[in-house]
Amino acid sequence: MPKGRIEVLEEKCKSCGLCVDACPNKVLKISDRINSKGYRPAEQYKDGCVACKMCAMMCPDVAIEVYRIES
Predict the structure, then answer these.
(1) CA-to-CA dists, residue 68 to 1, 35, 39, 40, angstroms
(2) Contacts of 63 (CB under 8 A, 6+ apart)
(3) What is the C-alpha separation between 33 and 5, in angstroms, rounded?
(4) Which of these, 52, 57, 56, lies nearest to 1 by C-alpha position?
(5) Protein fold of 3-69
(6) Which pLDDT does position 32 carry in this prediction?
């Protein structure tokens, strides 16, 4: 199974949570940190990302980049 990781562009994220709901492996959550606009950005908080890109496709703010990790 492929491995991946995401990078959230924190200043673009508005904490809508659509990415969290879309993730089939439930590796995302809304952070406790607050960005400069007052939102709590999403973050990958555990391993298990398979680089399916569902989170990025659901993001209305184009705030998620997905990377596949080659072993």
Answers:
(1) 11, 26, 27, 25
(2) 8, 9, 10, 12, 13, 14, 41, 42
(3) 19
(4) 52
(5) Alpha-Beta Plaits (3.30.70)
(6) 97
Look up residue 62 and give its two tokens.
């184009």
Q: What is the pLDDT of residue 1?
A: 73
CB 4 within 8 A of CB 65: no
Q: For residues 49 and 7, is the Cβ–Cβ distance under 8 A?
A: no
Structural domain boundaries in the chain: 3-69
pTM attached to this predicted model: 0.91
What CA–CA distance (Å, rounded) separates 5 from 59? 16
pLDDT for the residue numbered 70: 85
Average pLDDT over residues 10-26: 98
